[in-house]
C-alpha cells in the first residue's frame, strides 16, 4: 500500500457531515437502538446504544464513502449510515461471541 493510498483511506474514515456533536449523540442513540432491534431483538441501554450508533456511523461512513459522497449527507443519511454500520458491528460482535 503506497503512502497516497493510505492517506486516501484515512481521509475516507474521517469524513464528517454537518450534523454536529449533539446530532451525532442523538442519531447514535437512535441508530444503536434500531440496530439492536434488527440484530438481536433488543436494546443495550442508552449509553451503549449511543456508543454502538456512533461507532456504527464511523464504520458505515467509511464503507459508504467508497460509493457516495458521505460529507454532503444530512440527518436522514447520517441515521441510515449509522444504522447500517451499527448492524454490521453487532453482527460481527455476535459472530465473535458465538465462537467462544
From TrEMBL:
Membrane topology: Multi-pass membrane protein
Subcellular location: Cell membrane
Protein keywords: Cell membrane, Membrane, Transmembrane, Transmembrane helix
Pfam family, one: Transgly_assoc
Residue stretches spanning the membrane: 21-39, 46-68, 74-96
GO CC, one annotated term: plasma membrane
Signal sequence, start to end: none
Principal subcellular localization: membrane
Family: Belongs to the UPF0410 family.
Name under which the protein is recorded: GlsB/YeaQ/YmgE family stress response membrane protein
Taxonomic lineage from the root: Bacteria, Bacillati, Actinomycetota, Actinomycetes, Mycobacteriales
